[in-house]
Amino acid sequence: MSQPALLPETQLSALPPRFAAWFRARGWAPHGHQLAMLAAAEAGASALLIAPTGGGKTLAGFLPSLVELAGQPHEGLHTLYISPLKALAVDIHRNLTQPIEEMGLEVTCETRTGDTPHSKRQRQRRKPPGILMTTPESLALLLSYYDAPQVFGSLRCVVIDELHAFAGTKRGDLLALGLARLQSLSPGCRRVGLSATVHDPDWLAAWLSPTASPEGVRRVIGRDGAEAVVEILTTREHLPWSGHMAVHALAEVYQRIRQAGTTLVFVNTRAQAEIVFQELWHLNDDALPIALHHGSLAVEQRRKVEAAMAAGKLRAVVATSSLDLGIDWAAVDLVVQIGAPKGSARLLQRIGRANHRLDQPSRALLVPANRFEVLECRAALEAVKARSLDGDPPRPGGLDVLSQHILGSACAGPFDATGLYQEIISAFPYKGLTRKDFDRTLDFVATGGYALKSYERYRRLGLDKEGFYRVANLAHVKRYRMNVGTIVEAPVLKVRLRNGRVLGEVEEYFVNGLLPGDSFIFAGQLLAFEGMRENTVVVSRAASGDPKVPVYAGGRLPLSTHLAERVRGILADPEAGHDLPPAVAEWLRLQRWRSQLPPADGLLVECFPRADKEFLVAYCFEGRNAHQTLGMLLTRRMERAGLSPLGFVATDYVIAVWSLKAAEDVDALFDEDMLGDDLEEWMAESSMLRRTFRNVAVIAGLIEARAPGQEKSGRQVTFNADLIYDVLRKHEPDHILLQATRADAAGGLTDIGRLGDMLRRVKGRIRHRRLERISPLAVPVLLEIGKEQVYGSGLDELLDEGAQALIAEATEGLEVGRGQAELPL
Amino acid sequence: MSDSLHKAGRLLVNGVELQADVSGALLWPARRLAVVADLHFEKATAFAARGQLLPPYDTAATLDKLEAVISRHRVERVICLGDSFHDDDAVGRLDPRQAARLKALVARREWIWIAGNHDPTPPADWGGLVAEDYCEGALTFRHEAEPAARGGEVSGHFHPKAAVVLRGRRITAPCFVTDGRRLVLPAFGAFTGGLNVLDPAISGLFKKGFQATLLGRRGLFAFPRQALV
Questions:
Q1: For a disulfide at B216, which of A473, A621, A789, A796, Cβ 3.0-4.6 Å?
Q2: DSSP states of A243-300 as a string?
């Protein structure tokens, strides 16, 4: 908590003497926003503090509580602090202990997370500290105990850190429901939100508000720091047409690392992190201490890197979003973003990690990995300069999370349905929840919610004589507590060095593809796979080999709508002072000459023949997920039109479809009505929907990832979520969880909402260009063919795509394509 | 079913020509015989009793599939390879309509219930023959494969599934597994999970390699052991 002295001595008079003395002793004065937070507390108002990192934000959040607690002793829990990361809660605890001790305040302050020992957790419920620091999941657990009214009855304040990271997510939904519960237990409790700069502060204020409306929440805006100095690397090397690793530029990045004191190198995926780290290590002739940090590494490993970083022992860390939030390192000189940032808010957050001091500008370097990424980096840079941020509009809270919360409420004690409904609609994400949907969700929790066949005898919640819902037996309570939370992960396995330590976790399916002796890159090391020992992947260090890189599902964020708009803007008028590097400017000039540039308001669709096939390339810029869905729908439609589509590939920017016959009526092909029957039909089969359903079913407690007695194995659920989905669709098409799945599908992996917006926008504005040959702008996407994953297709779809060839490719050199009888078995 | 798909389902086990069906059933066309493994009737209610309220339609869905296979291929005889009932109390939880359907199915053809680990004594109420294992021609039918069995063993129990990577995407599906000597069937019941064929429990049965025939939604796809992940 660095705190330069910025304000005159008079400011100190606003503080109690003990606090003023403490500030003075450090040569500090309170920031204006810290005093504004104090004033809000005195007025008993909730407050939202929006400030860049490094503005003394955390202290601003806690100062009012400390002042109150110092002024008069408080029995029981006074302030609850909620953080998205366990590590952040621990770090803030450390930072807060210091002023408490230095001022000699009699304030107890403790953390409570999944790592807290059982005995301490029990003691915390009996005798809560004055300040408790925890996560949304631990809060949900605490609220599920019968003694929650005693624990939280005395609560005066809840501080929510990194509020922007919660709002709009399912984890945020869970937290919002928890906050609503807290409000009932302690009606006078006020809320404090700490947030980075956001696109829509009104929405965030409403989210924070105990009444789900932005009035009544005081807005406090921290001072903006010095403007960041952001540069886009113009490589001296050849700028690649495609790819995401930016390996070409890493020698230049290494030079920057050498020149800076400490550098954070941000990448977008864990696979990128491993490869960039390896390459930097090859280039590291000066043996600089460079470390790797991503979410799959063992916790101890990550903590070690964080500690070394905090102690100033590292020159660079290659990191994914695992370092986006939280822990303060004051001394970062340079932030490098490898690959396009995908969103301006995210870029701003990352840049903010450099130099947490307001009076000095952050320095950042963007390293585009290919030509389109140059445009995206440029767009992001212009967005950051214009302080225009991206943000999705608020989505209604998930019914799956609601189910979990209802069961949790019953675990805490009997409830009355109307009372619970009133409480729930005071939470912003659920303020539009209808009583009907609430009742259906409640029925799902109680009996499974099946209309055709009742599970009356297996009720989880029973209705007593007074009309209160109660848990039918204690086993349900145990199961609830084992499965609380909204983060559904793919099954993972620990990776352990032979006779050594655990390095981290990889997804199970990656391991299934390994044979003993295969090498792969993980945790920055070249490892050889030895075999499986009881759910652990045993590896040894390898000397050489052609390594694989673990791929993780869902690691990539799609391009934000806001950045997409800006990229279209640049393309429509590339000469308007965008300062594009010569290679890119030349590329766009060629495009204009051979075809045309994509217009800002319409949609450019190019069709051209190539190698006996007809290609259709559409420059939509709606992000990979929306393009994947579009690809599925387009190929269906082309099939019907007799064009014999063979396949498609989608990037963040473009979609390319290839077929035997050329598309003539492109307007009809892109007609909005594809979101009608085609979509319905596709959704029935789509594996993306199935994955969405699986997550919904796990969060809602229909499928439990962990059941008593088998929590240790944790490898797979014992039944197939796909089959449950099929059966539900057939027998209960209106089931509440199918409704929840469709709501999730509007965003997320299928991004149907975004696709619909685009189709409406470009209607009547499609520029169809029939070309003799491939255009310059189409080259990158065609290079992706064969490299990109095709999501959402089952075996049959791949077969429709001409999978015979793919199968031949996948099994090259093996005995395939012959019937069983001829196989040499 | 087109010729090419039909071909993908042809299996030769111990010299006997068999046909894998996309439903997960095995057909012995020469004898008008259908074999199904691991029906797990009333699995959903078994979970519901323990607090996990799965949709109570698994038995109906499994019977739908079974009736369809039987009528599509004019099956006259059926062998169920064990674990037909999820547990001992499954029969008591069957709703009368589904019970009547099952009874009608069994009454009209020759039916053999092989005992499984979930149903060591399959209920006799339905008719049909109950057996530990059953031999016919060059084939032996039992619930769980015996590592030292002679050629011609046809079994279930493991719920095999297999995965292939096509264009960077991993696709998993239930499958038949055979090396031409023995055959393991996929589970036929709704809601049944699976075990990857590369797990030693399955791959250990096929020391010299095997072929997996994956069930797509519309067709079957055969892959050699080496192509699986």
A1: A796
A2: -SS-GGGHHHHHHHHHHSSSEEEE-SSHHHHHHHHHHHHHH-TT---EEEE-TTB-HH
Q: CA dihedral defined by A464, A465, A467, A469, rounded to 10 degrees?
A: -10
Query: What does the alpha-carbon distance between residue B182 and residue B155 come to, in Å, rounded to a whole number?
Result: 8
Contact: B210, A479; criterion CB under 8 Å? no
Report the residue of chain B nearest A718, measured CA to CA: B193
Provide the pLDDT for residue A509. 62
Strand partners, B77: B33, B110
User: Which domains, from first to last, does chain B contain?
Assistant: 3-227 (3.60.21)
Instruction: Give contacts of B 38-67 with A, CB under 8 A.
Output: 43, 45, 47-58, 60-61
Which pairing describes strands B110-114 and B77-80: parallel, antiparallel, or unpaired?
Answer: parallel
Q: pLDDT (tens digit, 9 = 90+) per residue, A404-459? A: 999 999 999 999 999 999 999 999 999 999 999 999 999 999 999 998 877 888 99
Q: Which residues of B touch A476 (CB under 8 A)?
A: 51
Most confidently predicted of A4-18, A511-525, A530-544, A593-607: A593-607
The predicted-structure confidence for A450-505, as pLDDT tens digits, reads as follows 988 778 889 999 999 999 999 998 999 999 998 898 877 666 778 888 888 888 88
Q: Provide the whole-model pTM.
A: 0.84
Distance from CA of A702 to the nearest CA of B (A): 6
- Give the residue from A727, A784, A800, A801 with the most B CB atoms within 10 Å of its CB, the best one to mutate: A727
Residue A2 has pLDDT above 60, yes or no: no
Mutation site, B16, B18, B52, B188, interface A, largest A CB count within 10 A: B52
Reported ipTM exceeds the 0.90 cut: no
- Cβ burial of A600 (10 Å; 0-12, 13-18, 19+) is middle
Domains and CATH numbers, chain A: 9-221 (3.40.50.300), 229-385 (3.40.50.300), 399-486+691-743 (no CATH), 492-541 (no CATH), 581-686+750-793 (no CATH)
B57 with A730: Cβ contact below 8 A: yes
Residue B215, pLDDT > 70, answer yes
